[in-house]
Amino acid sequence: MKKAMFETGRSSVKLPMPAYISGCGCIAGKKESEGPLAEAIDCLSSDNTFGTDNWDAAESKLQKEAVRITLEKSGVDKREIRYLFAGDLLGQSIASSFGLLDFEIPHFGLYGACSTCGESLSLGSMTVGTGLASKVMCVTSSHFASAEKEFRFPLEYGAQRPISSTWTVTGSGAFLLTADNGPKTLAKISEITTGRIIDMGVKDSLNMGCAMAPAAADTIRQHMEDFGRKPGDYDAIITGDLGKVGSQALVDLLKEKDIDVTDKHLDCGMIIYDLENQDVGSGGSGCGCAAVTLASHILPRIKSGEWNRVLFLPTGALLSKTSFNEGQAVPGIAHAVVLEHVE
Question: Is 5 a domain residue?
Protein backbone atom coordinates (compact mmCIF):
# COMPACT_ATOMS: atom_id res chain seq x y z
CA MET A 1 0.00 0.00 0.00
CA LYS A 2 1.31 3.43 -0.95
CA LYS A 3 2.00 5.74 1.97
CA ALA A 4 0.63 9.26 2.17
CA MET A 5 3.26 11.87 1.35
CA PHE A 6 3.88 13.07 4.91
CA GLU A 7 3.59 9.81 6.83
CA THR A 8 6.74 8.89 8.73
CA GLY A 9 7.11 5.38 10.12
CA ARG A 10 4.09 3.77 11.71
CA SER A 11 2.61 6.55 13.85
CA SER A 12 4.26 9.85 12.93
CA VAL A 13 4.01 12.66 10.41
CA LYS A 14 6.43 15.35 9.26
CA LEU A 15 4.39 18.37 8.26
CA PRO A 16 5.04 20.01 4.88
CA MET A 17 5.13 23.38 6.65
CA PRO A 18 5.77 24.03 10.34
CA ALA A 19 3.09 25.39 12.63
CA TYR A 20 4.45 28.22 14.77
CA ILE A 21 3.35 28.74 18.36
CA SER A 22 2.92 32.50 18.15
CA GLY A 23 1.31 33.11 21.50
CA CYS A 24 0.19 31.45 24.68
CA GLY A 25 -1.59 32.27 27.91
CA CYS A 26 -2.25 30.46 31.15
CA ILE A 27 -4.25 30.88 34.32
CA ALA A 28 -4.20 28.87 37.54
CA GLY A 29 -5.52 28.69 41.09
CA LYS A 30 -4.43 28.86 44.71
CA LYS A 31 -2.37 25.66 44.90
CA GLU A 32 -0.45 26.62 41.79
CA SER A 33 0.17 30.12 43.16
CA GLU A 34 2.10 28.45 45.98
CA GLY A 35 4.26 26.40 43.59
CA PRO A 36 7.56 27.03 41.78
CA LEU A 37 5.97 28.30 38.53
CA ALA A 38 3.84 31.01 40.17
CA GLU A 39 5.82 33.98 38.85
CA ALA A 40 5.66 32.69 35.26
CA ILE A 41 1.89 32.04 35.17
CA ASP A 42 -0.03 34.88 33.52
CA CYS A 43 -2.93 35.00 35.97
CA LEU A 44 -3.38 33.49 39.43
CA SER A 45 -6.35 33.54 41.78
CA SER A 46 -6.70 32.63 45.45
CA ASP A 47 -10.41 32.04 44.77
CA ASN A 48 -10.78 28.69 43.04
CA THR A 49 -14.34 29.51 42.00
CA PHE A 50 -12.95 32.42 39.94
CA GLY A 51 -16.01 34.49 40.77
CA THR A 52 -18.53 31.85 39.65
CA ASP A 53 -21.17 29.86 41.52
CA ASN A 54 -19.79 26.31 41.09
CA TRP A 55 -16.72 24.29 40.16
CA ASP A 56 -17.84 23.48 36.61
CA ALA A 57 -18.51 27.13 35.84
CA ALA A 58 -15.11 27.96 37.32
CA GLU A 59 -13.41 25.63 34.85
CA SER A 60 -15.28 27.25 31.97
CA LYS A 61 -14.04 30.61 33.22
CA LEU A 62 -10.48 29.24 33.17
CA GLN A 63 -10.69 28.42 29.46
CA LYS A 64 -12.31 31.72 28.60
CA GLU A 65 -9.59 33.65 30.39
CA ALA A 66 -6.75 31.57 28.91
CA VAL A 67 -7.97 32.31 25.38
CA ARG A 68 -8.54 35.98 26.21
CA ILE A 69 -5.02 36.32 27.61
CA THR A 70 -3.52 34.61 24.56
CA LEU A 71 -5.37 36.86 22.12
CA GLU A 72 -4.37 39.94 24.10
CA LYS A 73 -0.69 38.98 24.34
CA SER A 74 -0.46 38.06 20.66
CA GLY A 75 -2.41 41.07 19.40
CA VAL A 76 -4.76 38.87 17.38
CA ASP A 77 -8.49 39.46 17.03
CA LYS A 78 -10.78 36.50 17.69
CA ARG A 79 -12.20 36.85 14.18
CA GLU A 80 -8.80 35.88 12.76
CA ILE A 81 -8.95 32.44 14.43
CA ARG A 82 -10.19 29.82 11.99
CA TYR A 83 -10.68 26.95 14.44
CA LEU A 84 -10.69 26.22 18.17
CA PHE A 85 -9.41 22.81 19.29
CA ALA A 86 -10.53 22.40 22.89
CA GLY A 87 -11.29 19.80 25.53
CA ASP A 88 -11.45 19.11 29.25
CA LEU A 89 -12.26 16.37 31.77
CA LEU A 90 -15.92 17.10 32.43
CA GLY A 91 -18.83 15.12 31.01
CA GLN A 92 -19.48 16.08 27.37
CA SER A 93 -16.58 18.59 27.68
CA ILE A 94 -18.85 21.27 29.10
CA ALA A 95 -15.97 23.39 30.40
CA SER A 96 -15.00 24.00 26.77
CA SER A 97 -18.44 24.38 25.24
CA PHE A 98 -19.72 26.80 27.88
CA GLY A 99 -16.42 28.61 28.39
CA LEU A 100 -15.67 29.27 24.71
CA LEU A 101 -19.21 29.92 23.51
CA ASP A 102 -18.90 33.72 23.40
CA PHE A 103 -15.85 33.69 21.10
CA GLU A 104 -18.04 32.42 18.23
CA ILE A 105 -15.11 30.55 16.64
CA PRO A 106 -15.61 27.25 14.72
CA HIS A 107 -15.02 24.62 17.39
CA PHE A 108 -13.66 21.07 17.49
CA GLY A 109 -14.41 19.44 20.84
CA LEU A 110 -11.72 16.96 21.91
CA TYR A 111 -11.32 14.33 24.57
CA GLY A 112 -7.96 12.78 25.28
CA ALA A 113 -8.17 13.01 29.07
CA CYS A 114 -4.98 14.63 30.37
CA SER A 115 -3.31 14.16 26.96
CA THR A 116 -5.69 16.75 25.46
CA CYS A 117 -2.99 19.43 25.27
CA GLY A 118 -0.91 17.11 23.06
CA GLU A 119 -3.95 16.05 21.03
CA SER A 120 -5.05 19.64 20.38
CA LEU A 121 -1.54 20.75 19.42
CA SER A 122 -1.22 17.76 17.10
CA LEU A 123 -4.51 18.42 15.29
CA GLY A 124 -3.99 22.16 15.25
CA SER A 125 -0.51 21.74 13.79
CA MET A 126 -1.79 19.37 11.12
CA THR A 127 -4.43 21.93 10.16
CA VAL A 128 -1.96 24.82 9.92
CA GLY A 129 0.94 22.77 8.54
CA THR A 130 -1.13 21.50 5.60
CA GLY A 131 -2.50 24.91 4.70
CA LEU A 132 -6.07 24.38 5.88
CA ALA A 133 -5.95 27.35 8.24
CA SER A 134 -3.58 30.24 8.94
CA LYS A 135 -4.46 30.65 12.63
CA VAL A 136 -5.94 28.21 15.13
CA MET A 137 -6.25 28.16 18.91
CA CYS A 138 -5.65 25.11 21.12
CA VAL A 139 -6.93 25.18 24.70
CA THR A 140 -7.58 22.79 27.57
CA SER A 141 -8.23 22.93 31.30
CA SER A 142 -8.77 21.05 34.52
CA HIS A 143 -9.98 21.92 38.01
CA PHE A 144 -9.15 20.06 41.21
CA ALA A 145 -12.65 20.17 42.65
CA SER A 146 -14.54 19.37 39.45
CA ALA A 147 -12.21 16.44 38.74
CA GLU A 148 -12.58 15.02 42.24
CA LYS A 149 -16.34 15.24 41.86
CA GLU A 150 -16.25 13.70 38.39
CA PHE A 151 -13.86 10.81 39.00
CA ARG A 152 -13.28 10.19 42.69
CA PHE A 153 -15.08 11.45 45.81
CA PRO A 154 -16.90 14.59 46.91
CA LEU A 155 -14.41 16.86 48.67
CA GLU A 156 -16.52 16.68 51.84
CA TYR A 157 -15.81 12.94 52.00
CA GLY A 158 -12.28 13.68 53.16
CA ALA A 159 -10.78 10.55 51.58
CA GLN A 160 -7.17 9.72 52.39
CA ARG A 161 -4.79 9.88 49.43
CA PRO A 162 -2.03 7.30 48.86
CA ILE A 163 1.48 8.38 47.86
CA SER A 164 0.80 7.31 44.26
CA SER A 165 -2.10 9.75 43.89
CA THR A 166 -1.70 13.05 42.08
CA TRP A 167 -3.25 16.48 42.59
CA THR A 168 -5.38 17.76 39.72
CA VAL A 169 -4.11 21.16 38.59
CA THR A 170 -6.62 23.99 38.64
CA GLY A 171 -5.58 25.76 35.49
CA SER A 172 -5.88 26.31 31.78
CA GLY A 173 -3.47 26.96 28.93
CA ALA A 174 -4.17 28.26 25.42
CA PHE A 175 -1.85 28.29 22.41
CA LEU A 176 -2.07 30.24 19.16
CA LEU A 177 -0.73 28.32 16.16
CA THR A 178 0.01 30.26 12.98
CA ALA A 179 1.41 29.61 9.52
CA ASP A 180 3.73 32.61 9.76
CA ASN A 181 6.93 32.97 11.75
CA GLY A 182 7.00 36.36 13.42
CA PRO A 183 8.74 38.23 16.24
CA LYS A 184 6.44 36.70 18.85
CA THR A 185 7.11 33.09 17.78
CA LEU A 186 7.84 30.87 20.76
CA ALA A 187 8.55 27.56 19.02
CA LYS A 188 7.64 25.56 15.95
CA ILE A 189 5.98 22.18 15.48
CA SER A 190 6.75 20.15 12.38
CA GLU A 191 6.80 16.57 13.72
CA ILE A 192 4.04 14.66 15.49
CA THR A 193 3.70 11.15 16.85
CA THR A 194 0.17 10.03 17.66
CA GLY A 195 -0.20 7.65 20.59
CA ARG A 196 -2.02 4.33 20.75
CA ILE A 197 -4.41 3.27 23.51
CA ILE A 198 -2.44 0.99 25.85
CA ASP A 199 -4.12 -1.07 28.59
CA MET A 200 -1.85 -2.97 30.98
CA GLY A 201 -4.64 -3.87 33.39
CA VAL A 202 -4.04 -1.19 36.06
CA LYS A 203 -7.32 -0.65 37.93
CA ASP A 204 -6.23 1.76 40.64
CA SER A 205 -7.64 5.21 39.81
CA LEU A 206 -5.37 6.67 42.51
CA ASN A 207 -2.29 5.45 40.67
CA MET A 208 -2.89 6.88 37.22
CA GLY A 209 0.82 7.54 36.72
CA CYS A 210 1.46 3.81 36.42
CA ALA A 211 -1.66 3.41 34.26
CA MET A 212 -0.35 6.00 31.80
CA ALA A 213 3.37 5.14 31.88
CA PRO A 214 3.07 2.23 29.39
CA ALA A 215 1.39 4.52 26.86
CA ALA A 216 4.09 7.16 27.29
CA ALA A 217 6.77 4.50 26.86
CA ASP A 218 5.08 3.19 23.72
CA THR A 219 4.84 6.65 22.14
CA ILE A 220 8.47 7.50 22.95
CA ARG A 221 9.68 4.17 21.55
CA GLN A 222 7.60 4.57 18.41
CA HIS A 223 8.71 8.16 17.93
CA MET A 224 12.39 7.21 18.16
CA GLU A 225 11.83 4.38 15.69
CA ASP A 226 9.82 6.47 13.22
CA PHE A 227 12.38 9.29 13.08
CA GLY A 228 15.52 7.20 13.63
CA ARG A 229 16.48 9.10 16.74
CA LYS A 230 17.66 8.49 20.28
CA PRO A 231 17.05 10.35 23.57
CA GLY A 232 20.30 12.28 23.16
CA ASP A 233 18.82 14.08 20.15
CA TYR A 234 16.56 16.03 22.54
CA ASP A 235 17.31 18.59 25.21
CA ALA A 236 14.36 17.26 27.19
CA ILE A 237 11.67 14.60 26.92
CA ILE A 238 8.71 15.90 28.89
CA THR A 239 5.65 13.88 29.86
CA GLY A 240 2.38 15.37 31.05
CA ASP A 241 1.41 14.09 34.45
CA LEU A 242 2.96 10.77 35.36
CA GLY A 243 4.13 12.17 38.68
CA LYS A 244 6.98 10.73 40.69
CA VAL A 245 5.68 7.17 40.78
CA GLY A 246 4.66 7.02 37.13
CA SER A 247 7.90 8.65 35.97
CA GLN A 248 9.95 5.91 37.57
CA ALA A 249 7.73 3.34 35.90
CA LEU A 250 8.33 5.05 32.54
CA VAL A 251 12.10 4.99 32.94
CA ASP A 252 12.02 1.30 33.89
CA LEU A 253 9.73 0.35 30.99
CA LEU A 254 11.93 2.11 28.44
CA LYS A 255 15.09 0.52 29.80
CA GLU A 256 13.51 -2.82 28.96
CA LYS A 257 13.46 -1.59 25.34
CA ASP A 258 17.10 -0.41 25.57
CA ILE A 259 16.03 3.24 25.64
CA ASP A 260 17.49 5.25 28.51
CA VAL A 261 15.76 8.59 29.17
CA THR A 262 17.07 8.99 32.72
CA ASP A 263 19.05 12.16 31.96
CA LYS A 264 16.46 13.67 29.62
CA HIS A 265 13.08 12.97 31.17
CA LEU A 266 11.04 15.61 32.99
CA ASP A 267 7.41 15.51 34.03
CA CYS A 268 5.05 18.47 34.16
CA GLY A 269 3.42 17.04 37.28
CA MET A 270 6.76 17.26 39.08
CA ILE A 271 7.59 20.73 37.72
CA ILE A 272 4.40 22.62 38.55
CA TYR A 273 4.44 21.74 42.27
CA ASP A 274 7.06 21.53 45.00
CA LEU A 275 6.77 17.86 45.95
CA GLU A 276 8.70 18.37 49.17
CA ASN A 277 6.67 21.24 50.57
CA GLN A 278 3.23 20.94 48.97
CA ASP A 279 0.81 18.17 49.85
CA VAL A 280 0.31 16.86 46.32
CA GLY A 281 1.25 13.20 46.62
CA SER A 282 3.14 12.06 43.53
CA GLY A 283 2.74 15.43 41.75
CA GLY A 284 0.32 17.27 39.51
CA SER A 285 -2.18 15.89 37.00
CA GLY A 286 -5.14 16.99 34.89
CA CYS A 287 -5.36 18.58 31.45
CA GLY A 288 -4.23 21.88 32.92
CA CYS A 289 -1.01 20.38 34.25
CA ALA A 290 0.75 19.98 30.90
CA ALA A 291 -0.90 23.08 29.42
CA VAL A 292 0.09 25.49 32.20
CA THR A 293 3.60 24.03 32.43
CA LEU A 294 4.07 24.31 28.67
CA ALA A 295 2.98 27.95 28.62
CA SER A 296 4.85 29.10 31.72
CA HIS A 297 7.97 26.93 31.83
CA ILE A 298 8.73 25.02 28.63
CA LEU A 299 8.05 27.53 25.85
CA PRO A 300 10.08 30.34 27.46
CA ARG A 301 13.12 28.04 27.53
CA ILE A 302 12.66 27.09 23.90
CA LYS A 303 12.12 30.73 22.91
CA SER A 304 15.36 31.75 24.64
CA GLY A 305 17.36 28.95 23.01
CA GLU A 306 18.11 27.21 26.31
CA TRP A 307 16.37 24.20 24.76
CA ASN A 308 16.55 23.67 21.00
CA ARG A 309 14.47 20.52 20.61
CA VAL A 310 11.98 19.08 23.09
CA LEU A 311 9.76 16.02 22.82
CA PHE A 312 6.55 17.01 24.60
CA LEU A 313 4.00 14.27 25.25
CA PRO A 314 1.04 14.90 27.56
CA THR A 315 -0.36 11.67 28.99
CA GLY A 316 -3.98 10.68 29.55
CA ALA A 317 -5.88 8.08 31.58
CA LEU A 318 -8.95 7.11 29.57
CA LEU A 319 -11.32 6.21 32.39
CA SER A 320 -14.82 7.44 33.19
CA LYS A 321 -17.12 7.21 36.18
CA THR A 322 -18.93 4.38 34.40
CA SER A 323 -15.85 2.33 33.52
CA PHE A 324 -14.38 2.77 37.00
CA ASN A 325 -17.60 1.70 38.75
CA GLU A 326 -17.81 -1.34 36.49
CA GLY A 327 -14.35 -2.42 37.63
CA GLN A 328 -12.64 -1.93 34.30
CA ALA A 329 -8.93 -1.14 33.95
CA VAL A 330 -7.57 2.32 33.13
CA PRO A 331 -6.20 2.53 29.56
CA GLY A 332 -3.63 5.20 28.82
CA ILE A 333 -2.58 7.31 25.84
CA ALA A 334 0.16 9.84 25.07
CA HIS A 335 0.38 12.20 22.09
CA ALA A 336 3.78 13.68 21.21
CA VAL A 337 4.80 16.85 19.41
CA VAL A 338 8.35 18.00 18.73
CA LEU A 339 8.90 21.60 19.85
CA GLU A 340 11.87 23.36 18.29
CA HIS A 341 13.63 26.68 18.74
CA VAL A 342 13.23 29.21 15.93
CA GLU A 343 16.00 31.71 15.16
Answer: no
